[in-house]
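Team,

Forwarding the record for the chain on the shared tracking sheet. I've put the sequence and predicted structure together so nobody has to dig through attachments.
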Amino acid sequence: MKKIFVFAVLGLILFMNVGHCRAEKKQKTNVLFIVVDDLKPMLGCYSDQQIISPNMDALAGQGVLFENAYCQQAVCAASRVSVFSGLRPDQTRVWDLKTNMRDVNPGVVTLPQYFQKHGYQTAAAGKIIHGAKNNDPRSWSIPYQEDRHYTYAKGFKYPANGKYQNKVIHKAYRESKKEKLGWKATNQYLKECGLSPSVECLDVPDDAYEDGAVAVKGMELLNEMSQAEQPFFLALGFHKPHLPFAAPKKYWDMYQRSDISQAPFMEKSEGAPVHAYHSWGELRNYSDILPTGQVPADKQKELIHGYKACVTYVDAQIGKVLTKLDELGLRENTVVVLWGDHGWHLGDHGLWCKHSNFEQAVKAPLIISAPGMKQGKVAATMAEFVDMYPTLCELTDLPVGEHLDGLSLVPALKNPKKEVKNYAISQFPRGDKIMGYTIRNQQYRYTIWLQGPFRKQQIYTQPKIVATELYDYINDPLEKTSLADDTQHEAIRVSMQTQLLEILNSQKR
């Protein structure tokens, strides 16, 4: 009888251990990875008192907000490829919108691909790895499907050229398709017809536009992936507030044009070189924007109004996805990361769009909500987008590859007062022969413009500096004056240049 009792106890312990192991396997941490195109830190959780962003603000309250997060390069492809590869642009050799990541990095293991190798389901919807053909099919265990094939609101088709729901524009778009014009040629055709406006305000449902359809697709994927035994890595890419600023009318109506102000400083910085600026050709591609000169004041306010409407529209779509995550009972076992791929100029310095090394272009939101980590806190440490790859590896107990350029931000998620690093580096090219590298710390930004050609070699090994900039964000937050030639700041300039070149030269090539 005693032996029977002992065996029964041992059997019960074994059963409980097996059940516990199964539960642990089932409870492996999921990842919901949300990227928003052209989203600057114009959010309530980033202290903007005029924007309406309740869902992203709520996410910040459930996680850690990084108030000093910077992209590697302020253009979609280079920024996103750096995030998904964990490598800086000079490593990936993706500095523009034309280069296909796999053509120059055939063996790179992307972030979702790495998770897939470690037993995760991986899927995506929307704009994800721009700079990778078809959003890199090998990254996804569930085949990637383009936005045009998502479900749109009843009575609506895929927006004309992915942008507009105006019926007149749709008609012209159909004409362009009869001529078998490509995307770029279609853009030019619509512009010549005066039918490529920089804004669109129509009384339509959320899912008449791409981002509403992306939210619906994202919720469908959450439903599907939650049924599997494997953990999941789901990436969702929202298009707005990318140009054109097209959002349903109800989001425009949340703002009053009379309350919108232009940028407080619209001049060029004193002492800044010509390389620091550009002619914002992206915005000039629209039919209602002048080909030269500054944007008129009333149009500036309309553009800012449209940008804000798009932010609030996207916020609502993100809210739907997070609500679905909660309904499925997945929030407590899912890391949620939200980031904007770079910032955006709204008339400051006389600039629009991105494509610069100024603060408004390279600073972007980064919010991480993770099981067991701090909630409702702000991390002051400097952070770079290449840090996301190792951070997610550590949060999900995956080995962190030594080849990665970033550092894990988990110490700051545990203790938001912790300084993980004291710098963030960004860069931007001007043509094929000039590259601007910029390093930011808690007070200063120092930028060096180096002569290349950078496409053939790493030009910082023997740098030929053609211009420099230095800004003090405590005393000059609007970057009105470059201090690069100020003798009183020479020690700071030398120190930051030395640190910048040391970091660039230490990259694993």
